[in-house]
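Obj.: predict assembly geometry.
Materials: sequence records (below).
Method: joint structure prediction, all chains together.
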Amino acid sequence: MTGATAEAWAPGPLDRGFFARPTLIVARALLGHLLVHETPEGAVAGRIVETEAYLGPSDPASHAYRRTPRSRMMWGPPGHAYVYFTYGNHFCINVVTEQEGVAGAVLIRALQPVAGVELMRRRRGVEGLRDLCSGPGRLTQALGIGGHHNGHDLTRPPLYVARGGLDDGERVGRSARVGISRAVDWPWRFFVVGSAFVSRGPTRPWRRHLKGRATPADSGPDRA
DNA sequence: ACTACGATCTACT
DNA sequence: GTAGATCGTAGTG
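Observations (raw structure tokens):
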């Protein structure tokens, strides 16, 4: 259980073509894959169970709604990390999508701890498995991700996305995105239905009431 | 130069 | 359920 090295279980990184697709496709397709960080202190990894899509100038909630120095990475090459600091306390990590020159990124919102759990506990200062990576600020702390990872190529160690997958019977759910003040009803959050490791309780993500017009809240065709 | 506000988390009532 | 922490980014003057 504990003590397994990355080499013992991790397949290679996903290739760049995986990320060079429309952002909404990548956001859903990332579910089940692994975010891996290998450091001198040890290897840690988690299975992606919750994501959010952020587009370019067409998306009022996106950092790329307007082009700024901070968000320039979102126009950069696919498969690279966009890491930003927020609320004076937390880092969040995105995977850049689309062709270079087109803005788009997927925020990783929650992981199911898979390896390096003791190191995660040490970094987080909490014990509960469900408290280690269930939130965008929590998972960066657990994995040791910081501002210096901004622009890192996530198809290359030491920080990369590796092939995982969804089990038969696991379904993809959608909801509105969390923590935003514009485009609040756009259903661009994706999560593994029933996972105990999503950032908002496992039984609660459906509880958003639709106001006025219907939104496509049903899961679409799944398959990663 | 100055101000407002977060793609959040934790602790407390 | 609500508030405070805490600071870089972005927008305004």
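Conclusions so far: The CA atoms of residues 58 and 86 of chain A lie 22 Å apart.
To do: check interface contacts against the pulldown list.
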